[in-house]
Design brief:
single chain, mainly beta, UDP N-Acetylglucosamine Acyltransferase, domain 1, nine-stranded mixed β-sheet, 23 strands, 33% strand
Length: 166
C-alpha cells in the first residue's frame, strides 16, 4: 500500500509488501526490504539500507551515507535520528527521540567511525548515542542517557555520565 504525497526517487525499487504513510522522503540508492511499516514524515536519505519487518514510526530520520543500516525486526519510535555510519542489528528497539551523533569534537581531521548497536539492544527515550560506540547484545539503556563510550558487558545502564545499574 502506498499513500499519497510521498517524495520517492524514481530509481527506488519498491518492495512487494510494505505499508507506507504520507509525506515521506526516500532518496536515491535506498534499499528497503519486505513487510516494513513506515509511518508519516519519515526521511530516508541516500544510501540507507533497511532490512525486513521493521516498524519505522513517524518523524524518524536517516542521514544516509555509505553505512546507515537497519537490520530485521527493529522498532524505531517517533522522532529518532539515525546518523551516518550507524548500524542497527536485528531486533533493536529505539524509544522515541533517540539520537545518534555523527560528529567529532576533536580539532584533528575526521576519521569515520562506525556505531554498532548489536542484536536485541533496547534504548530508552531521549537517549543520545555518541560517535563510534558499540553497544553489545543484551544491553538496556535507560531513558535520557548519554552513551559516549562502548559497552562491552551486557546489563542495564543509565544516566549522564552513563553507569551500570544492574
Amino acid at each position: 500500500m502506498i499513500s499519497l504525497y510521498n517524495l520517492i526517487h524514481p530509481s527506488f525499487e519498491r518492495p512487494k509488501e510494505w505499508i507506507i504513510g504520507s509525506y515521506n522522503l526516500i532518496e536515491e540508492n535506498v534499499s528497503i526490504g519486505e513487510e516494513n511499516k513506515i509511518k508519516n514524515y519519515v526521511e530516508i536519505r541516500k544510501g540507507t539500507k533497511i532490512g525486513n519487518r521493521n516498524l519505522i514510526d513517524s518523524r524518524v530520520s536517516f542521514s544516509g551515507g555509505d553505512y546507515c543500516i537497519v537490520g530485521d525486526d527493529c522498532i524505531l519510535r517517533f522522532g529518532s535520528i539515525i546518523a551516518r555510519n550507524v548500524r542497527l542489528c536485528d531486533r533493536v528497539f529505539l524509544a522515541p527521540h533517540v539520537k545518534f551523533i555523527y560528529i567529532s569534537f576533536s580539532t584533528r581531521p575526521r576519521i569515520p567511525k562506525i556505531t554498532t548497536i548489536e542484536k536485541g539492544v533496547r534504548i530508552g527515550m531521549g537517549s543520545v548515542i555518541g560517535d563510534g560506540v558499540r553497544i553489545i547484545q543484551g544491553t538496556i539503556i535507560g531513558a535520557l542517557s548519554f552513551v559516549r563510550k562502548s559497552i562491552d558487558e551486557p546489563g542495564t545502564y543509565g544516566g549522564n555520565p552513563l553507569r551500570r545499574l544492574k
